[in-house]
């Protein structure tokens, strides 16, 4: 899959590269802000434990804020409330006939923001990341020699 193309959950299971999800988030609990926000979730094999969550603000300003969160934490949050500290995530089930949503809060000392997204889209995208690098095998993707050399080269 081309990393510039959004993951829709319909690609073939054999991945050519890291999956990317483009989706729209709905901002909750804040009446004076844009109601919807573009979000890109990225996964890279060279950082196999993490997911980058890019939030795009006003397109006229070309503003993007990136949060990096643990892939397993995001996956756990699709099933039950997870996280503590600056990232919390939980599933939100609606009335019959309405799609389930995934909610997550980004918390900083000066404020908090909460979003919701389509739960099924994020689950399908996460499934694609686990098809690429299964849980428990992430350590195989890390170049430990280079990482150790980098640590010891620091003064």
Characterization of this structure:
The protein is of the alpha+beta class. 20% of the residues lie in helices and 34% in strands. It contains three helices and seven strands, in the order ββββαβββαα. Strands 4-3-2-1-7-6-5 form a seven-stranded antiparallel beta sheet. Strand 5 (87-92) and strand 6 form a beta hairpin. The termini are far apart. 17% of the residues are buried. Residues 1-15 have low confidence and may be disordered.
Q: How would you describe the shape? A: globular
Structural class from helices and strands? alpha+beta
Number of strands: 7
Order of helices and strands: EEEEHEEEHH
Helicity, as a percent range: 10-25%
Count of helix runs = 3
- The side-by-side strand order for the widest beta sheet comes to 4-3-2-1-7-6-5
Features:
155 residues, alpha+beta, seven-stranded antiparallel β-sheet, 20% helix, globular
Question: What is the secondary structure topology, with strand pairs?
Answer:
Blueprint: E1 20-28, E2 36-42, E3 50-56, E4 64-70, H1 71-77, E5 87-92, E6 101-108, E7 111-118, H2 119-132, H3 144-153
Antiparallel strand pairs: 1-2, 1-7, 2-3, 3-4, 5-6, 6-7
């Amino acid at each position: 899959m081309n990393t510039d193309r959004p993951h829709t959950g319909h690609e073939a299971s054999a991945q050519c590269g890291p999956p990317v999800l483009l989706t729209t988030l709905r901002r909750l609990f804040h009446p004076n802000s844009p109601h919807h926000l573009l979000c890109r979730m990225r996964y890279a094999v060279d950082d196999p434990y993490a997911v980058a969550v890019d939030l795009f603000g006003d397109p006229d300003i070309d503003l993007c804020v990136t949060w990096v969160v643990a892939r397993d934490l995001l996956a756990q949050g699709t099933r039950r409330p997870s996280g503590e500290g600056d990232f919390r995530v939980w599933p939100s089930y609606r009335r019959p006939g309405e799609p389930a949503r995934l909610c997550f809060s980004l918390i900083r000392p000066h404020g908090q923001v909460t979003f919701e997204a389509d739960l099924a889209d994020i689950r399908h995208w996460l499934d694609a990341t686990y098809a690429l690098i299964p849980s428990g095998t992430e350590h195989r993707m890390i170049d430990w020699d280079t990482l150790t050399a980098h640590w010891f080269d620091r003064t």
